[in-house]
Amino acid sequence: MELSQLHAFRAVAETLNFTRAAERLHLTQSAVSQRIKSLELELEEPLFHRNKAGVTLTLSGRVALEHVRTVLDELEALKEAMRGRVREPAGRVRVAAATQAFVYLFAPLFESFMRGHPAVDLTFRGTATTVQTVAEITEGAADVGFASLPVYSPGLEVTPLFEDELVVAVGSPHPLSGRQEVSPAEIESERLILFEPGASIRRSTDAFFDRAGIRPRLALESNDTGFIKLMVERGLGVSLLPVWSFRDEVADGRLAMVHVQGHRLRRSVAAVSLARFQSAATRAFLAYVFDHRRELQERAST
Predict the structure, then answer these.
(1) What is the CATH classification number for the domain harbouring 249?
(2) What is the 3-state composition of the chain as percent helix, strand, coil, each rounded to the nearest 5?
(3) What's the DSSP call for residue 180?
(4) Three-class SS of residue 275?
């Protein structure tokens, strides 16, 4: 049995897709398939059910995955022990989150981390939804994710970081501009420009509509924050956005923010990672993020 077989098996088991597993391992699909076949022959057990819809783990495959993860994690731990504790953390940390969060919230934090940890290579994966962010972690495509709660999975470690708040974004010429508050009934009378279903912001927005008994009059849907803000600025409708996502436009006088009367639309955002072995680089990155929770909270609520 070779380590290359175990790496190939874990990649296919976590992605349930030979093509994506091959991309992760920088191999051809045929090379991955051959390693899986040779491992199955050696174990004398089929590890995957193969059909037109894709692959799924067999019972033997699920048992094997737990053991293979343990073996590979222990191998990484051994490598770190041999490198010595005094050495600077090195390696790659793959981070997944909604693209707008990277741009507006985390970019300064990542920049300062990279300056202080030059041996760690940070890579970023933009996602459209919290579900996609969590999937990136559980499938092994990312090491750390940032997602709004709730996130439920026994295999994940979820640590709350900060809270943000959704407010109504309106164009400066809009009649609501300059108001401190707007009633739910007034929101219902407006055309709304919202994130697509499945996005964490949309989930919070829809939950508010349900509580307030609002039936929104939809104008547009998009997961592009810049596009939503531009459409609001041009008067095509109003939107519900996190305070941090359009404060520059408010400062420039292009947009205005108005709170919802009788409601505080708060969300909790957490760091998500696998609850098993993590590399020294991943541990260093998470520790840095946790140490800067107050800074993130200030940036999210300013």
Answers:
(1) 3.40.190.10
(2) 50, 25, 25
(3) S
(4) coil
